């Protein structure tokens, strides 16, 4: 008796097609999360703009000295007390880079305890 040669069973490729399809959908969705900018838009260049520190901000030097508009300030509480009520909603601090973090946090807490609603730290923007 002659036996018929056994045929190799075909590989089922449907699961592989499903995985590839799901990956395709994932990359389509991930690639369209951020809307592209308008092609005709030209962004502003700020490379040559000279900036100065805000005049209404409390400057804290590396040794802990406080100044405002070039004049010495006795304490954070005294600075807040001198400001009008409208300015107390958002008070700004410009710390020196070498100022210890504990000192900066202490000054911020003292300003809030004296009546400042929100204390904002002004920093240099890194690119």
Automatic annotation (TrEMBL):
It is found in: Cell membrane. It is a single-pass membrane protein; Single-pass type II membrane protein. Its main location: membrane. It comes from Ponticoccus litoralis. Keywords: Cell membrane, Membrane, Protein transport, Transmembrane, Transmembrane helix, Transport. It holds the Pfam family ExbD. GO terms for biological process: protein transport. One of its GO terms (molecular function) is transmembrane transporter activity. GO terms for cellular component: plasma membrane. This is Biopolymer transporter ExbD.
